[in-house]
Protein: Aminotransferase
Organism: Lonepinella koalarum
Amino acid sequence: MFEHITPAPADPILGLGEAFKSENRANKINLGIGVYKDAKGTTPIMQAVKEAEKRLFDIETTKNYLAIDGVADFNERTKILLFGEGSDLIKDRRAKTVQSLGGTGALRIAAEFIKRQTKAQNVWISSPTWPNHNAIFNAVGITIREYRYYDAERKVLDWDNLIADLTHASEGDVVLLHGCCHNPTGIDPTPAQWKQLAEMSAKNGWLPLFDFAYQGLGNGLDEDAVGLRTFAANHKELLVASSYSKNFGLYNERVGAFTLVAENEQIAATALTQVKTIVRTLYSNPASHGAATVAVVLADPVLRKQWEDELTEMRNRIKAMRTKFVALLKEFGANQDFGFITQQNGMFSFSGLNASQVDRLKDEFAIYAVRSGRINVAGITEDNIRHLCESIVKVL
Ligand code: LMR
């Protein structure tokens, strides 16, 4: 029966990690997968996380199953991070959260929920986007429509075409938005543009779905939530898929959350029962450790402050690398201005390199990046930046 199976293509992002592992050249650099590296090029466990794990070790008394929706305190604290302390929709109990297996798991729950419980015909996805968005919505059989996002010429948000394309979104269509640190471009709407988009969305009756995987890595926890909160203030209903992989460094613990906002508490509670049915059929109930760790950090003012300080340090290191990267490219004689890279947010940058330049970086210089030209700025360090910039100038 299995002899007819054909091989699946390697994942454009995770596949790179596998190739990188078997790379033997000493000066290899991985700018592929979106994982934070510190100045030494390692991906450490955050101190606040380590401390919370120690505490958990002492206070945990059972490994009994979690509820279908996961760690209750984690879910409550997730809502506060998303919508802010004192948010009306939290007070009105219009938001319901379930713990998920990372941001990807949350997106899959969202896709299943949309397919099974709404009349949405299309999901509108930015072009370009994280490739797994297309794969997830294809997997559940929802039609994908694209809206233009990136002006490759000017290296800015393609605002006019974004608006022009989204005027074709019908009432009830899902519009997928990157809450901050757009993956792969690193370019986000301004607060004024978020407002315009939220008004357009409310007027046209879209169902917004926020993919919010980088909160705190752009400009700050509250600053990065401006788009989501602007939409939340304008909408009766919306969905959020959020992740703690990056801002807590909990990649392999798979910690994320799916949050649903409804018009009132009763509708939200009913919808939650359907979300739980989805979870039950996908993986029954989630794993405890990562979410329990996040809950310990967020509940303790000292640990929370420590976490925020560490997150700030990460954000600042990425920003510093952006500045240095641009300056060194210039110093090494790049034939174009890369100044736009300092305007982008979060881990990623759309470098403007084309697929054949990216291939040359790998083949000739052992530098791995996504073939779209996306580079993970968080993978740049003081130790590798000169080799990186010299190599880029050679392939330009
Ligand atoms: C990325 O885009 O590199 C990350 O979100 C990791 C992933 O799962 O692709």
User: Anything to note?
Assistant: The mean pLDDT is 96. The first helix runs from residue 14 to 21. The longest strand covers residues 95-100.
